[in-house]
Write a structure and sequence with these properties.
By secondary structure, this protein is of the alpha+beta class. It contains 7 helices and 22 strands.
Length: 429
């Protein structure tokens, strides 16, 4: 079949291009104008009409026009590039390259292509591609449209509809389940836990009856929730203890979370070397040893977790031991400031680059949970020593965070009062 000239194709699909441009907000089609027909001739008064005027029922029904284009959708797979996806969608190599070049030149970051993204391709009935649309996010979209001069790209950006909403609940079985029961996602749990990661060990101390509430920004595209913005203020109540974290940005620093006294919640030490798991054995000086027998001191906290769970350094420090150490299995032993040392036992392996004599930073992964040495199953044996003497990791009060002072503290207290009042009104306990 003879291929239609490009200009002929463009005339046929003018409506499609107009629709694509309208979607992108490039222009709004002008309102339709009704043609004004001349008034019908009027018979002289008293002259009978030869025919009755036609009624609407007598008018013929116009046939629906046949569509001049068709669309198809390509869903990206793991490892796909734009060229691979377009090729799978039926475009030849040259057209795919031209589209990719046009998109890059107009600000599209093709590295943001990810599995399950969709490419919508519009074709003429002759099989000629005339438009490709991609939305890397709900706030950004690109459409490459065929013209006589090549592929032109329209870009559409929209601002998210940000709403501040209160979320509150009570822990029944786990914090995750309680948050998900409210219709929220695990992402919110991660944010809440990170705020108090230096003050509360959610892996060890969370229990049924704990309560939480927070004010969080939620970002919507129209009426559809997309993701969370900033967590403005959070409170967690456990055993009568109320933890409060308020988001605040000092004039001379980066935003962070502070308690109601204006002290930073980012402290020198984390409360837990793992993010989410459960404690199987608490700190005690008289624990029946599961392998060696007898009652022996257990100067540690055991965290049960699957093999391979990342283990974090709870603070900046230097590495004293990194490797096999008898019944402790694969061990990492760190020295920190102010006389503190931490020990991580029964690891399955060390993280890349962790070796004796090296340095590590807070939250850096130093190894992975295992069951090496005298261990009955996969878990992390975690120990803390102060000035050469083991202390309870769950009860130790580590170095407090840096406080705000002067005008910054005054401004913070004003903002904190307003946010906590708003939270209490929206989600009373």
């Amino acid at each position: 079949m003879r291929r239609m000239p490009r200009r002929g194709v463009l005339l046929i699909v003018l409506g499609v291009v107009t629709l694509a441009a309208t979607w992108l907000g490039v222009f709004t089609p002008p309102p339709s104008r009704q043609a004004t027909a001349p008034p019908p001739a009027t018979a002289p008064e008293g002259t009978p009409s030869d025919t009755n005027p036609p009624t609407a029922a007598d008018a013929p029904t116009p046939a629906a026009p046949a569509p001049a284009v068709k669309t198809s959708t390509v869903t990206l797979r793991r490892g796909d590039t734009l060229l691979i996806a377009l090729g799978r969608g039926g475009l030849d190599r040259r057209a795919s390259n031209d589209i990719a070049t046009a998109l890059r030149e107009n600000g599209a970051d093709l590295r943001r292509l990810k599995p399950r993204d969709e490419l919508e391709i519009t074709w003429t009935l002759e099989g000629e591609p005339i438009a490709v649309r991609w939305e890397p996010s709900p706030w950004l979209g690109f459409a490459a449209v065929a013209t006589d001069g090549g592929w032109e790209v329209r870009r559409a950006e929209t601002q998210p509809d940000v709403r501040v909403e209160a979320v509150s609940g009570e822990v029944r079985r786990s914090l995750f389940e309680s948050v998900e029961a409210l219709g929220e996602s695990a992402q919110l749990v991660v944010g809440l836990v990170e705020i108090f990661s230096s003050d509360f060990d959610f892996t060890a101390d969370t229990k049924p009856g704990d309560r939480f509430r927070l004010l969080v920004e939620k970002r919507y595209a129209g009426d559809e929730f997309v993701d969370y913005g900033q967590l403005l203020v959070a409170q967690y109540v456990s055993d009568g203890r109320v933890l409060t974290g308020v988001n605040f940005e000092p004039a001379s620093g980066r935003p962070g979370y502070y308690d109601l006294a204006g002290r930073s919640l980012k402290k020198t030490f984390l409360k837990s070397p793992l993010e989410f798991t459960r404690v199987t054995s608490g700190f005690t000086y008289a624990r029946p040893h599961p392998i060696l027998g007898g009652v022996r001191p257990h100067l540690a906290v055991d965290y049960a977790a699957p093999v391979g769970t990342p283990v974090r350094a709870v603070a900046d420090g230097s590495v004293l031991v990194a490797g096999w150490n008898g019944g402790n299995g694969i061990q990492v032993h760190l020295r920190h400031r102010s006389g503190y040392e931490t020990v991580y036992n029964h690891l399955s392996r060390l993280a890349t680059g962790v070796r004796a004599g090296g340095k590590v930073s807070q939250r850096q992964v130093i190894g992975y949970v295992g069951a090496t040495g005298l261990a009955t199953g996969p878990h992390l044996d975690y120990r803390v020593a102060k000035d050469g003497r083991f202390v309870n990791p769950l009860g130790e009060k580590f170095i407090p965070g840096q406080p705000l002072d002067g005008a910054e503290r005054t401004r913070f207290q004003r903002d904190a009062r307003a946010l906590t009042k708003r939270l209490e009104d929206a989600a009373p306990f």
